[in-house]
Amino acid sequence: MAVNKVEQYLIDMMVSYKEIDKNIWLLDDGEHGLEAVAVVYDDPLVVFETTVMEAPKEKRLELFTKLLELNARDILHGAYALEENKIILIDTLEYAGMDFTEFRATLDAFGLALTQHYPILSPFRA
Fold this sequence. Notes:
Blueprint: H1 5-13, E1 17-21, E2 24-29, E3 34-42, E4 45-54, H2 60-73, E5 79-83, E6 86-94, H3 100-116, H4 118-121
């Protein structure tokens, strides 16, 4: 079976991952700051997603304001979002036009955001 370009790019980046289902990869690579990042190929998109934290019951407005500020000035690829009651970091790329540089930039942005924003967001953790 031929390796699709998502898996080939993960191999080329030397990122630790496992394929947990067809076209679903779970990255677990602390060296790259990519722990529990899911990459899903769902034609025509490649979706990158990770849960950052549960949304707290208190200081929600303050947290959501901070997340919007981070989206505006600190994240080059992707954005923070609210899914059910979880804060997630998410990005999507079009598979057909996706190249290695764009794929890598998304994962680099995730690793950077998860590392640099931890001290900013940790006071909001329940």
